Amino acid sequence: MTQTLTLRRPDDWHLHLRDGEMLKAVLPETARDFARAIIMPNLVPPVVTGAQASAYRDRILSALPEGMTFTPLMTLYLTEQTDPEDVAAAAQSGLITAVKLYPAGATTNSASGVQDFDKVRGVLETMAEIGLPLCVHGEVTDPAIDIFDREAVFIERVLDPVRRATPGLRVVMEHITTANGVDYVASQDDMGGTITTHHLVINRNHLLVGGIHPHYYCLPVAKREEHRQALVAAATGGDARFFLGTDSAPHTDPNKESGCGCAGCFTATNTLSVLAELFDRQGALDRLEGFTSLHGPAFYRLPANEERITLEKGGPVSYPSHIETGEGPVTVFDPGFPLHWRVVGA
Ligand SMILES: NC(=O)N[C@@H](CC(=O)O)C(=O)O
Ligand SMILES: [Zn+2]
Ligand SMILES: [Zn+2]
């Protein structure tokens, strides 16, 4: 008998949709399986005001193909000039669901991020008062810190001090990649941690052994195998602080396969197949729905989706190696192992 698995329709709590032609091409890849997603604001220029978020939301909704439903949950990009009143108004009107903190220079399109945390204290205090979550790219940018240590150092130097200075601030540590991140999130209240599909699959060997593999390059960079195992344990362990944020981050192949390749893995197309395979291998299929569909809404104080999707286990499932976009091809994440679960009903 065919094995099936029915879940509440998943949400993606960390997604890059970009804009223009890229947006048009990648949006259906997410909307096919996901009901909602937290939309990252690191466009060029970034989405910093309520008015910009509202315009971006309209562009996303007009890029959605007929017959698909999808709710973009908008965010504002925190800068040292961000006005607490604009943030509060955007939150109260329901336009935004979170604010995103990029340490200046930490990742793709983060040049306008925060350098001096004293300058954003007012915004963070307002957010704590109104219960608006802060999503954090958790890496220090100090050139003296080794890239593989940047997440662990961020927790000590930035994240913990900021949280202590702003009691009640609700924080999501995004795309955690280390056992340090897992331990920190698991030991705190008012915290969530998103975990990506690719960080559950790859370690730093995938990136560097047998040649350099640019399509596995993302930030934070994949770490040692023991860290990947800690992420798998967190994702499959049932702790509601951990939930899916794919960080699906499309860049065209020429921009990835370059002398200075962009950071980001594009996982929207096959995320659910990869996750089902992984949870199945862990004997944790019964925990998949919590990770993809329940823990995130609980943290964000939103209802879980009522709609269901069904996955079916069968012969090997294949996905296109890349999708075409008006800007060029984008390679789809290759987990490096066969997949057997496909979404059959959504
Ligand atoms: N994760 C990545 O490697 N890249 C993201 C930015 C980010 O989430 O840090 C992107 O926008 O391309
Ligand atoms: Zn990031
Ligand atoms: Zn991201």
UniProtKB/TrEMBL annotation:
Segments forming domain Amidohydrolase-related: 12-276
Catalytic residues of the enzyme: D247
Location of N6-carboxylysine modifications: K100
BP GO terms, sorted: 'de novo' pyrimidine nucleobase biosynthetic process; 'de novo' UMP biosynthetic process
Keywords per UniProt: Hydrolase, Metal-binding, Pyrimidine biosynthesis, Zinc
Bilayer-spanning residue ranges: none
Annotated binding of Zn(2+) 2, by residue: K100, H137, H175
Residues annotated as binding substrate: H16, L17, R18, N42, H137, L219, H251, A263
Record text on subunit structure and interactions: Homodimer.
Family recorded in the similarity comment: Belongs to the metallo-dependent hydrolases superfamily. DHOase family. Class II DHOase subfamily.
Name of the protein in its database record: Dihydroorotase
Organism expressing this protein natively: Antarcticimicrobium sediminis
Organism classification: Bacteria, Pseudomonadati, Pseudomonadota, Alphaproteobacteria, Rhodobacterales
